[in-house]
Amino acid sequence: MSVLGFVGWIGYRSLGFLGAIGHFTLFMSMAISQTLTPPYRPRRILSACLDLALLSLPVVGLTAIFSGMVLVLQSYTGFARISAESAIPQVVVVSLTRELGPVLAGLMIAGRVGAAIAAELGTMRVSDQIEAMQAMIKDPISYLVVPRLIAGVIAMPILVLVADTIGVMGGYMVAVYRLGFNSASYLNATFEFLEFYDVVSGLVKAAVFGFIVTVVGAYKGYYASSGAQGVGRATTSAVVLSAILILVSNYLITEAFFNR
Amino acid sequence: MTDPTPQASAQELEIQFINVSKAFNGRSVLSDLNLAIPKRQSIVILGRSGSGKSVMLKHITGALHPDRGQVLVKGRKPDRALMESIGVLFQQGALFDSMKVWENITFSLRDVEGWNARQAREFAIYLLEQVDLAADVADKYPRDLSGGMAKRVALARAVSTRPEILLCDEPTTGLDPVSGLVIDTLIRRLVDQFNMTCLTITHDLASAQRIADRLVLLADGRIAWDGAPADFATTDNSAVVAYRRAVSQTHV
To answer: B108 and A129: CB-CB below 8 Å?
Structure first.
């Protein structure tokens, strides 16, 4: 490839990338605009909330409990070297509420709910169901995307709050029953050190991740093409893009909250 | 070439394609196309795959816009409000998987009419009767229906708003001959019963003959032939002869 060809290729790819960002931003703007406009379809929002929070609880709960347990074990082996075992409850609760709870739940939800949204909307796209909805003068974004978006922002923080609690309890079990910590001292240290701000920052992250997972899943599904293969591609890229955006936004939100 | 509607005035015309051209990625799909469809006529557009039939349909629903020329429906450019008077029967039915049959049929009506679930279900059952389906179908999901039944439900949904125009996209595709015959008969019956203008696109010649008042053959983005169904079998128009030969060879 000549230098000019290479530069041309870079330019072509850059324009494509910018175009994709613009397209996604446009979709997101339409979804947000529809979210602020009635009708709100409470039954569909409730159904999406149940799907996101309740049906995801087993997988998110498992992730949280084992994360809490491993965190205690790992902290113990490390902190024992500097005789700082007493700091374990504080480290566990802060790590879980600020970081691990929302991020791990976000990634699990991207794999479970984001993929499902992309697959469902993608199937609707390739089987003309979205086109049929438009022909019936129903806005597919208002009907299909907005309830999921609202559910993502509402249900995700609730799910993360539960996951945080489960994770702390997992850590507690290992600390008390495996490593011999005093039960009351462990719980006291956990709650005395925990600040309101720690929990709030985690819940804000959860709401943002809920938004990301639902809007990315909906976007990828809504514009899926080329039959079953296209739906498969949409599903995969929804999970990958959601995961990347979750990790990037996690850093940005942490900067915003704690870099003072 | 014959024109069965030479006397139709502008007021009587339901759909008009006026010098419409459309290209995708430099490939011309519709080329200076002119077609006038009067009210309450059932017109069938025949043509091979890629001849531009679906593109014509999407211009009527406003999903596509012409590069040149204009498409007029009821004398104006297609818009959202106009869609209220158009019903569409999609190729694969396009029933909503997550909804029961009655919810599918009344999907576009419940908000408008302010019906509760019982009223909507009753109306859906009435429409199911119109397409020769039993009332118990109302509570089934699309996945529980055969291809022919799903197409009939889709037809019931398409006419649920009592549209003035019915658009049918390959109504018999994927159906066995008997189910295809049933669908054609139902389309014809409902078009007459509800006084609709009907535009059907298909490559199924037998189906076209059953539905049409008027047949149009589309080739290379242009109207190659336009006439009465009875004349299609006898005309010596070269495009029609080629199409008939292709149909007989492929048993389409």
So the answer is: no
Environment class of residue A172 by beta-carbon count within 10 Å: exposed (0-12), middle (13-18) or buried (19+)?
A: buried
What is the token pair recorded at A105? 């739940």
Indicate the number of domains in chain A.
Answer: 1
Of the pLDDT bands very low, low, confident and very high (cuts 50, 70, 90), residue B251 is: low
CA B217 – CA B47 distance, rounded (Å): 6
Mutate to test the interface with B, among A136, A143, A148 (most CBs of B within 10 A): A136
* Contact yes or no for B125/B79 (Cβ under 8 A): no
In this structure, what token pair is assigned to residue A62? Answer: 């498992």
ipTM above threshold 0.95: no
* Cβ within 8 Å of residue B138, ≥6 positions away: B100, B101, B102, B105, B121, B124, B125, B128
Q: Which of A41, A117, A127 to mutate to test the interface with B (most CBs of B within 10 A)?
A: A127
Run of H or E residues at B71: strand B68-73
CATH superfamily of B10-95+145-250: P-loop containing nucleotide triphosphate hydrolases (3.40.50.300)
Whether A21 is in a domain gets the answer no
Q: Where are the domains of chain B?
A: 10-95+145-250, 100-141
* Minimal CA separation from A143 to chain B, in Å: 11
Both tokens assigned to B86: 């158009």
Say what the pLDDT of residue A260 is: 62
Within 8 A of A129 by CB-CB distance, chain B residues are 94-97
Contact check, Cβ <8 Å, B95/A129? yes
The pLDDT score that the predictor gives to residue B9 is 53
Contacts of residue A119, defined as CB under 8 A and 6 or more positions apart, other chains included, come to A221, A231, A234, A235
Instruction: For B111-154, write each residue's pLDDT tens digit.
Output: 666 788 888 999 999 999 999 999 999 999 999 999 899 999 99
CA-CA-CA-CA torsion sign (B163, B168, B171, B173): negative
Tell me if A129 is assigned to some domain. yes
